[in-house]
Amino acid sequence: RVQLSDSGGGSVQVGGSLRLSCMYSTEPYSRMAWFRQPSGKEREGVATIYRTGATYYADSVKGRFTISQDKAKNTLYLEMLDLKSEDTAIYYCAATDVLLPTAHFFRPAKYDYWGQGTQVTVSS
Questions:
Q1: Is the dihedral of CA 57, 63, 64, 69 positive or negative?
Q2: How distant, in Å, are the alpha carbons of 17, 22, 28, 37, 44 from that of 41?
Q3: Are 93 and 34 in contact (CB under 8 A)?
Q4: Per-residue pLDDT band at 27 (split at 50, 70, 90)
């Protein structure tokens, strides 16, 4: 069973940057991802990385966010640059042992393991 603990959220101004971290107990067989959930809205996928290092991003964050993994430290990262007010949300790391088709990369129900969430607030 994979245990996840995410951290690194905070309050920044528009245009600022943050790096989120997610420590995991053991590497999942398939992939890890970052999701976010704005207040009153559904959880949405942001970025995902396969165990080989292949990455995939939501259109809304392409060019601004980077997902990466340090396997020696059992840590997943999300580097967020040029933050916008619409990036405000609780961010969650997630993991799955199941091989997913691209169409399922950002379906929360396909992920079995979740961090507790970390709040990111972007203000102008």
A1: positive
A2: 23, 23, 28, 6, 9
A3: yes
A4: confident
Tell me if 19 sits within 8 A of 80, measured CB to CB: yes
Q: What are phi and psi of 16, to 5 degrees?
A: -80, -175
For 27, 34, 53, the CA distances from 101, given in Å and listed in that order, are 19, 17, 16
Q: What residue type is assigned to position 29 of the chain?
A: Y
Residue 24 has pLDDT above 90, yes or no: yes
First to last CA, the chain: 41
pLDDT score at 36: 98
